[in-house]
Design brief:
This protein is mainly beta. Helices cover 13% and strands 42% of the residues. The strands form three sheets. Strands 1, 2, 4, 7, 8, 10 and 13 form a seven-stranded antiparallel beta sheet that branches. A six-stranded antiparallel beta sheet has the order 6-5-9-3-11-12, with no helix packed on it. It has a two-stranded antiparallel sheet with strand order 14-15. The protein is elongated and about 55 Å long.
Length: 239
């Protein structure tokens, strides 16, 4: 039996799906010429993959494939989204963290599992800007996770030296990475990133009132949450 979908619901579904987009993606880790492989993420080495959005987006999720040097423990890995620092022609991750996650790798042994990291909202990915996804861990090499390379393709990557300094790996094998977002930059007045500007956002402004370095409630980014930010929020009020 066929059921007729109401036009309003259908239109909403189409509009919603049109906003969703893949900002960057690679192939998965399976079926490649070299089999399953990738760099260790351990106390001795952090690993980063770079991507450049082709348009303006608001981040919704990051997906990465990991396997495990251990078959009994689940190492902890910190994932950060960072800005780029370029010295001359050398591009590496900066120390500026835009968003971060801490996860315990699900995989045991060399059977990769994709980790899905959801954004808390409001993170802008601007067209043509270089961004890095960095994985780091305090696990020892023998029990560390392995960030899988994609089966095909090349992207720009970087690893750390024993000193902790970044060295660019260049455009070698692609680290598995999918970045998803909604089309368009976030509204800076939508502080909690739920798509509306309302009393919840107002509460963030009021609770952070005063000097506030690099906080979301500082809508105009002048280092202080004050009447200027309140005015911007009220002018964007939507609920």
């Amino acid at each position: 039996m066929r059921h007729k979908i109401p036009a309003a619901i259908l239109a909403f579904a189409i509009a919603g799906s049109a906003l969703a987009a893949v900002v960057h993606t690679t192939a998965g880790p399976f079926g490649g010429f070299f089999g399953l492989w990738g760099p260790d993420v351990s106390s001795q080495q952090s690993v980063g993959a770079r991507f450049i959005p082709s348009g303006d987006f608001t981040l919704t999720s990051i997906k990465m494939w990991f396997m495990n040097n251990s078959s009994t423990t689940h190492p902890t890995v910190k994932i950060t989204l960072r800005t780029d620092q370029t010295a001359g022609t050398v591009s590496t991750p900066s120390s500026t963290v835009i968003e971060q996650w801490t996860i315990n790798i699900q995989a045991l042994g060399w059977n990769p599992i994709q980790e899905v990291l959801l954004s808390t909202g409001g993170v802008a990915l601007q067209s043509g800007v270089k961004y890095w996804v960095v994985a780091e861990s305090t696990a020892s090499s023998g029990s560390s996770s392995v960030w899988n390379y994609a089966s095909v393709g090349n992207t720009f990557s970087a690893t750390t030296l024993s000193s902790g300094a970044w060295q660019p790996g260049g455009s070698g094998a692609a680290l598995t990475l999918t970045v998803e977002g909604t089309v368009g930059l976030p509204n800076p007045a939508d502080i909690n990133g739920d798509g509306v500007v309302n009393g919840i956002d107002l509460s963030f402004v009021l609770s952070a009132w005063g000097a506030c370095a690099s906080c979301q409630a500082d809508i105009n980014r002048d280092g202080t949450v004050d009447g200027f930010d309140l005015a911007v929020l009220l002018s964007a009020w939507s609920a």
